[in-house]
From TrEMBL:
Pfam families: RNase_T (PF00929). Keywords: Exonuclease, Hydrolase, Nuclease. It comes from Syphacia muris. SMART domains: EXOIII (SM00479). This is Exonuclease domain-containing protein. It comes from the Eukaryota. The keyword Cell membrane does not apply.
C-alpha cells in the first residue's frame, strides 16, 4: 500500500447514497420514494472532501414515514422538505455552481458518481422518476459501484459496506443507514482502495437518460419486482 493515492482518470468523484421510504417485511406501495439525497465531492488528487450537497426529500405518494423507516434511517420528519423534482433541480444547479457541468448539462471535466451498489442509480432513481414523470439527466446514467471496485481491488465481492469497512480496517463513522454518514464512510473506502493502487473506472450504466416529463404508467408486476432499497 502506497502513502499517496494513485493517479486517477477522474478529477472528481461524487459519492451518493439515497435513503428511501420503507416498511418492515414487505414492499412499500405504490413505490419507494427517496427521502435523503446526500452527495460528497472528492478531489482525486488528494481524496479529500471539497464540497457536499445534502437535502432531505418529501415523499408525495405516501407523504409520511413509517416507524420502521424512522428507526432505520434516523429521519423523523420530511414534511417541510422539497419534493424530488425540486431537489433534482437544486442538485443540477449545485453542479453548475461547482463548475462540474455547463449550461447544457454536459460535464466540464472528468467526474463520475459513486454508489454502494447499483440500487441508487440503477433502480431507485429510474423507477421513481419514471413513475412520477421526471427527467433523468445524462450524468446519472453511468457510475462506479464501490462494491465492484472493492472486488476488483481485493479479489472478492463484499456483501455490504460494513464488510468493506471491516476488511479495510476503517473505523465506521456515524449511523448505519444515515445517508450522509454512509457517504462519509464510502469516502474512506474510496481513498483506501486508491491507496492500494486501484484505478477507478465505470462499473454500471443505464442505456439512456429519461427525458419524458409526462407520467408513465407502471404495472403492479413491475412495482412488485423492484428491489427493496436496503443495504
Amino acid at each position: 500500500m502506497g502513502s499517496d493515492p494513485v493517479s486517477q482518470v477522474y478529477e472528481h468523484f461524487l459519492l451518493l447514497d439515497f435513503e428511501a421510504t420503507c416498511e418492515e417485511g414487505r414492499k412499500i406501495q405504490p413505490i419507494q420514494e427517496i427521502i435523503e439525497f446526500p452527495v460528497i465531492q472528492i478531489e482525486s488528487s488528494s481524496f479529500k472532501e471539497c464540497e457536499q450537497f445534502h437535502c432531505y426529500v418529501r415523499p408525495t405518494k405516501r407523504p409520511f414515514l413509517t416507524t420502521f423507516c424512522t428507526h432505520l434511517t434516523g429521519i423523523e420528519c420530511v414534511d417541510e422538505s422539497e419534493n424530488l423534482s425540486t431537489v433534482l433541480e437544486m442538485f443540477h444547479k449545485w453542479l453548475l455552481h461547482r463548475n462540474l457541468i455547463d449550461l447544457n448539462g454536459e460535464r466540464t471535466c472528468p467526474w463520475i458518481l459513486v454508489t454502494c451498489g447499483d440500487w441508487d442509480l440503477g433502480t431507485q432513481l429510474p423507477s421513481e422518476s419514471e413513475y412520477k414523470g421526471l427527467a433523468i439527466k445524462k450524468y446519472f446514467t453511468e457510475w462506479i459501484n464501490l462494491k465492484k471496485a472493492f472486488a476488483e481491488a481485493l479479489g472478492y465481492f463484499p456483501n455490504s459496506m460494513s464488510v468493506m469497512l471491516r476488511d479495510l480496517q476503517i473505523e465506521p463513522i456515524g449511523r448505519l443507514h444515515s445517508g450522509i454518514d454512509d457517504v462519509r464512510n464510502m469516502c474512506s473506502i474510496l481513498k483506501a482502495l486508491a491507496l492500494r493502487g486501484h484505478i477507478f473506472s465505470p462499473t454500471a450504466k443505464i442505456s439512456k437518460a429519461i427525458s419524458s416529463t409526462f407520467p408513465q404508467r407502471v404495472s403492479q408486476k413491475q412495482l412488485f419486482r423492484r428491489k427493496k432499497g436496503l443495504w
